[in-house]
Amino acid sequence: MWKTKFVLWIFLAFLLGSLEVSGQGLPSVTVSMGGATSPEKMSTTLQILLMITILSLAPAILITMTSFTRFMIVFSLLRQAMGVQNIPPNQVLVGLALFMSFIVMAPTLKQINEKALQPYLKNEILQEDALKAAVDPIRKFMLSHTREKDLALFISLSKEKKPETAQQIETASLIPSFIISELKTAFQIGFMVYIPFLVIDIVVASILLAMGMMVLPPVIISLPFKLMLFVLVDGWSLIVGSLVKSFEVIQ
User: Fold this and answer.
1) How many helices (H) and strands (E) does the chain have?
2) pLDDT, tens only, 8-37
3) Is 169 in a helix, a strand, or coil?
4) 152 near 35, Cβ under 8 Å?
5) Closest-CA residue to 106 (of 166, 133, 64, 66)
6) pTM for this one?
């Protein structure tokens, strides 16, 4: 239920942002630089500024700390392997990767909601404790998908003391380690996706060369066969399912 509400709130935000408001308009939020008459007002202003800062960093957080990177790289390599440069459009692939990331990150987001967001909204924990409780599930997710070799590389580059436990690993070293681990995994999956289409290109090029049709580009002939193969094996379902399950295996 909370995931449905989350998606609905996002859709509502985009909808309100795209509307041209006239007449009475929508209520606005104003942050003034004058003196605060009470600590509560000062706290509310700081919370609004913090929220605006987090929203501005949301794209970077989405790319660097979730499964979004792996999905987008595999989709891009798939599109190149098939020989269709702009089909599907980037907006479609980004939207698909985004909702796939919601599915993969659902357990992590649920933990953040239960351990950090809801207790903070109910004034059960302080802001510092809420931030720490929100970071812990994300760190656990990244640690479970980060290679030890990549993690050791960034720990050595940052001149940190060798950590004895996972809790001692600095987040500044964990995030880039997770990124390059995801890049390596995405390229490995992309290589496996590339092979069937490469075989079709080689076969078509060999047939055209044997027939003496060297002027005709092999891509023009191989593209329909690659599309037909991809449709017959239900390629989108296989790739999407395999990508999501690649995270479930470790979790």
Assistant:
1) 12, 0
2) 444 444 434 444 443 444 445 454 545 545
3) coil
4) no
5) 66
6) 0.71
